[in-house]
Amino acid sequence: MKSFYSTEEEGEKYPILISETNYIVFKSDNMEKISNSSGDSLSLEDALVEENWGWVYSNFSRTKLVWKRTLYSLSYIFEFFCFVISLFMNKSSKEPVKAPFSVDPYFKIVTWCFVILMGFPFLRVIYSNSVSSINILSWSINLMYLPVYFLLSFLFIHRAVTGVDGNTIIEDVILGCAMILTLIIYYRVKYKDDGRYKVGIIELLGVQVHFSALLACLLVEICENVFKTCSIYHDADKMDSKLFGWHYSSWTILVIILTSWTGSLILYLYKDVFYAGVMSFTYFGIYSIQQRYFCDRNEPECNDSVGVTSVVMASIMLFFILITIITYPKLVLYSARRNS
């Protein structure tokens, strides 16, 4: 049986890869062998539940590691290429979306650039031979992130080709699927993270920050795109129009408050200042588009209540972020641990 080892900062060796027909659970401090098997009777989930201070890798070989890394690298390059094309070809990306819930286009560009750039640390993470990195490829994320790459790539190309005349329903479906997959990944790297592995600065950026920012960015995109769809099929570009008896301005304020509540809840549960930070940045983007584009030009999308609500929610979120950083500095810097 072959085992490959990774040397950590303290000079200790940890087994991270075992042959496809054998797997072993080790204790992390003194390398004491706890249990082993030569068959397929012991699953990864069972081992983690039974021995929550150890780890196990089942049916995972160096070959699988190589092709998974290759797939992720090629997918990221493709997504990056599509994003750059969309950025330069889609002239409408710098124009405001004529919808009640709308974010300043320059704020959106900055957010997407940040999310895409955080893909570099993520690649660094999966190319690392640390225990936590191998765990990401073998269980936490596995291949689940690959469809998100291609969904976002298609979204970027679709917007670059069609511009403002694109099919918003197709975009709603794409964003919805990407959001669901990202939410599952986020759940696994946040809620399922019980603090077993060390987390360095690269993994903090590539996993914790990356998926927090991506989840927040997709949530904002979905909200804006749904309102954009309504503006096409239900005349929702006028704030005084009604949907189910409510003015669209009221719906917009409700969405801002609900997303702010969600950000505060995630901040409370996981000390995730990165998700909350992106949401706060977005609220300032909503205020910016109200003032710079709509109200100053007397557009029908102008509504002072929406602008004021977005600034208030952004300020509250920033206050909560500051309190979290002061109260839980270690959790913020080294990823949220469920049992900390």
UniProtKB/TrEMBL annotation:
Tagged with keyword Nucleotide-binding: no
Membrane-spanning residues: 71-89, 109-127, 139-157, 169-189, 201-222, 248-268, 273-290, 310-328
Keyword terms, alphabetized: Membrane, Transmembrane, Transmembrane helix
Superkingdom per UniProt: Eukaryota
UniProt name for this protein: Uncharacterized protein
Species this protein is from: Stentor coeruleus
Taxon lineage: Eukaryota, Sar, Alveolata, Ciliophora, Postciliodesmatophora
